[in-house]
Write a structure and sequence with these properties.
The structure holds two protein chains of two kinds. Chain A is an alpha+beta fold. Among the domains of chain A are: 94 residues, Alpha-Beta Plaits (2-Layer Sandwich); 80 residues, Alpha-Beta Plaits (2-Layer Sandwich). Chain A is built from eight helices and eight strands, in the order αααβββββαββαβααα. A two-stranded antiparallel ribbon of chain A has the order 1-2. Chain A has a two-stranded antiparallel ribbon with strand order 3-4. In chain A, strands 5-8 form a two-stranded antiparallel ribbon. In chain A, a hairpin with a 5-residue loop joins strand 6 and strand 7. Chain B is mostly helical. The model of chain B has no long low-confidence stretch (mean pLDDT 89). Chain B has two domains: 197 residues, no CATH class; 65 residues, Alpha-Beta Plaits (2-Layer Sandwich). Chain B is built from 15 helices and five strands. Classes of the chains: A alpha+beta, B mainly alpha.
């Protein structure tokens, strides 16, 4: 075999092997990053940026005085080495000095996002949002329980109690806990406090639990929301279907019947 | 006793450094020590001096992350440190070295080297892995190698709890023992490759004196990067290949005193 041929073959082999390794590797990365239900420490960047920025040093974990945070271990089926917490085991106790955030060397935990006027403010953190399963929440059955309400560090703000007449007995009231997602930080103290077998109130990442109405809908009764109309532009929808063929398609039922 | 020290002094020192670092990191997490916090990816000495893995930072950069000042300073300190000392991370710091050295020792003593003489892989795989890791980092927006790095799994495992990390340890151990001699550290590990590149102009080098050499080749037997010892018994010169980890095993096993660490020679050459 000529040297030239050998060289070309070797190069081709190298490139092929690199492609093979690269594809296998990417498949693995794609797999481990697919898990969406992971709760991050306070101030964490949006998940996508977080995964690019976290260096997995564990300094936030070491700073946490309650051992809330843990680094994902091999076998946890999460991006390995990234910090997370499981509120039903140990929730975030919302330290006012937020020791876990300033120690982050890479800014994956963004101090600015948990500051009000240059001062640390844990109430601004958005680790997740609590969600209530009203089928298993005994307060919705009519049994008096306000464990989550009492446990909430933003008592009366993030969780409020809604009174409602209990028609079944005719003389009692339901005292239903209601989450205010704009205020809830997702610390998980409610989840930890919940008395049911499997918590009826639990924290989910905000991207998972919250919907998005989009820009088409405006609260006409809300002066602030109404302002969005001022900059609104109309989008005219154009389709390829001509008027005639549209009528034909209505008349022609084809094989439908 | 004197002889024992002579024959194992660097090995002893290396193990001491490797284990002490792990103990300090472990203590920081378990008992709140503040001397050395974090882990080998990024750490902080006394909360003042940052140190960060430049290869991890490079992947972060590729993934599109913003590099903070703190991280940049940490990276710079590490680059200067290993830029001067050479690839010492691998033999003096990295805990995986304990595993692969055990494999390599067992290979020699059990005779696996005898039944498998051919080494079917190139030592340049590590540089390919660096390239692939950066490409994946760019396209997937994650620090690709940090997601699979057995090095991080091991040191993180020691400091924060192992989980299934024992499997990573076992894989490396068996791979080096049964598949490829010095397989992980000497062929595949991109971090080792990265520090090889970084140590290109390091001032600490092993120096060889061919006059006193009896060509017993004990050094080549223990060297994990045997390609760096090409000049043994032929030419009196320093190891120039920066894939040398400056572990000092060749110096210890030499019965003729033909190998020694040197710094000044290097400066003279320039």
């Amino acid at each position: 075999m000529t040297d030239r041929r050998k060289f070309i073959l070797n190069m081709a082999r190298g490139v092929g092997l690199a492609g093979l390794a690269g594809l296998t590797w990417s498949a693995y990365v794609d797999e481990v990053t697919s898990k969406k239900i992971i709760l991050r420490p306070p101030g964490a960047l949006p998940e996508k940026d977080f995964l690019a920025t976290c260096i997995k040093c564990g300094m936030c974990v070491e700073a946490c005085p309650y051992d809330t945070l843990a680094l994902a271990k091999p076998g946890d089926n999460m991006p390995i080495g990234t910090p997370h917490f499981i509120p039903r085991e140990i929730p975030c106790y919302m330290c006012p000095d937020i020791p876990c955030v300033p120690v982050c060397p890479t800014g994956a935990l963004d101090q600015k996002s948990v500051e009000t006027e240059g001062k640390l403010d844990i109430d601004k953190s958005e680790m997740g949002v609590a969600v209530i399963d009203d089928k298993s929440c005994i307060a919705f059955w009519g049994i008096q329980c306000d464990a989550c309400y009492r446990a909430c560090p933003l008592l009366g703000e993030a969780i409020t109690i809604e009174y409602e007449k209990n028609e079944r007995t005719g003389k009692h009231a339901f005292m239903k806990p209601v989450i205010e997602p704009d205020i809830c930080t997702g610390c998980g103290l409610c989840e930890k406090a919940c008395v049911t077998d499997k918590a009826a109130v639990f924290v989910l990442p905000r991207e998972v639990a919250l919907g998005k109405a989009g820009s088409y809908y405006i609260k006409g009764w809300d002066k602030e929301d109404e302002k969005r109309l001022e900059d609104a532009t109309a989008i005219k929808t154009k389709t390829e279907i001509s008027k005639r063929s549209a009528i034909d398609s209505l008349n022609d039922m084809g094989d439908l019947y | 006793m004197k002889k024992l020290w002579d024959k194992y002094r660097f090995l002893f020192l290396r193990r001491t450094v490797q284990i002490s670092l792990m103990v300090l990191y472990f203590g920081a997490n378990a008992w709140g020590w503040t001397f050395l916090t974090g882990n080998l990816s990024s750490s902080s000495i006394l909360g003042l001096i940052p140190m960060s893995d430049p290869y991890a930072a490079l992947q972060m950069f590729a993934a599109g992350a913003l590099i903070t000042t703190n991280l940049a300073i940490g990276v710079l300190i590490v680059i200067i440190l290993y830029g001067l000392l050479g690839r010492v991370f691998c033999s003096w710091v990295c805990p995986v070295n304990l595993i692969t050295d055990l494999s390599s020792y067992l290979r020699r003593t059990l005779g696996f080297n005898e039944i498998q003489k051919r080494q079917p892989a190139t030592r340049n795989i590590r540089y390919w892995v660096i390239v692939i890791s950066l490409v994946i980092s760019i396209f997937m927006g994650v620090t690709a190698f940090e997601f699979i790095s057995p090095i991080s799994m091991v040191h993180r495992g020691i400091i924060f709890g192992l989980g299934f990390g024992w499997a990573a340890i076992l894989i490396i151990f068996l791979f080096d023992l049964l598949v490829l001699k010095n397989g992980w550290c000497g062929h595949i590990c991109p971090l080792g490759g990265f520090y090889s590149i970084l140590g290109k102009y390091s001032i600490v080098r092993v120096d060889h004196d061919a006059e006193s050499c009896t060509a017993c080749m004990k050094c080549k037997e223990v060297c994990p990067e045997v390609q760096v010892l090409g000049m043994i018994s032929k030419e009196s010169k320093q190891v120039s290949n920066s894939e040398c980890t400056n572990c000092g095993r060749c110096i210890e096993v030499c019965d003729d005193g033909s190998l020694e660490f040197s710094i000044i020679d290097r400066l003279k050459q320039k």
